[in-house]
Amino acid sequence: MKDNVDSYVTKDGRTIGPVVMEMKNITLRFGGVEAIKDISFDIREGEIRAIIGPNGAGKSSMLNVISGFYVPQDGEVWYRGAPRPAMKPFQVAQQGIARTFQNIALFEGMSVLDNVMTGRLTHMKSGLMSQMLWRGAAEKEEIENREVAERIIDFLEIQAIRKTPVSRLSYGLKKRVELARALAAEPSLLLLDEPMAGMNVEEKEDMSRFILDVNDEFGTTIALIEHDMGVVMDLSDRVVVMDYGKKIGDGTPHEVRNNQEVIDAYLGVAHD
Ligand SMILES: Nc1ncnc2c1ncn2[C@@H]1O[C@H](COP(=O)(O)OP(=O)(O)OP(=O)(O)O)[C@@H](O)[C@H]1O
């Protein structure tokens, strides 16, 4: 583990930078249910950080804390060196954080391109007044936004379906369009909610490759939650393992794979 260094270079030549987000003793309750119990970990610039765990472990709750959707009752989230206050979704987006959802949240009746364009909303500056006063500015912005959207569509190899309504796409392609929409926001931190759930083997392989390519090509820091331990092991730089709301492992895939508590949790060994 490289816990005490500012940055380091991975075996495959990527630079992992300093800590960008720190979860400090996070506890989250829903009434009497403690979904997250005093969990701390960090996310470094440029890394792929996975949070895994069996059903009900608290992964979705944790992703919602990272995204700012849930505010924990105890603990603090630090982002870029400062404690992060409660925020509205648009403020989260303005901080350069974008996410995908477990249950795909696309506009089914709209084309792939139009869906990806919705990811540009936070970058659209010209309001109605300036559009009326000076159409040129709005047009220039529209062209720039379209260029970004088209570039991402090419990158994720979905050019052939750019005019197709999302409702006609396979599940795997919808997941890829959702990734494209999140990328259109040009996030510095990308949160992926079970990106491989419900996919067949080939779709999982494609999605893994795209996640790696996004991280490599754009330098995007990626935090993802995933139920299936296998799929994230080849993908992630570091992995947090949760079980019953607690953190039971944190380290490289190799370290986590050899952690007895993690092995027991995945084999369903009974708790005290
Ligand atoms: N909005 C909520 N209201 C009440 N309880 C909740 C809520 N969200 C989650 N929980 C509870 O918190 C615990 C953790 O749930 P969470 O969905 O975060 O786990 P998970 O690891 O994402 O599970 P899964 O892999 O099944 O999606 C569970 O006991 C769940 O029932």
Automatic annotation (TrEMBL):
Keywords: ATP-binding, Nucleotide-binding, Transport. Pfam families: ABC_tran, BCA_ABC_TP_C. It comes from the Bacteria. GO terms for molecular function: ATP binding; ATP hydrolysis activity. CDD domains: ABC_Mj1267_LivG_branched (cd03219). The lineage of its organism: Bacteria, Pseudomonadati, Pseudomonadota, Alphaproteobacteria, Rhodobacterales. This is Branched-chain amino acid transport system ATP-binding protein. GO terms for cellular component: plasma membrane. Residues 21-269 form the ABC transporter domain.
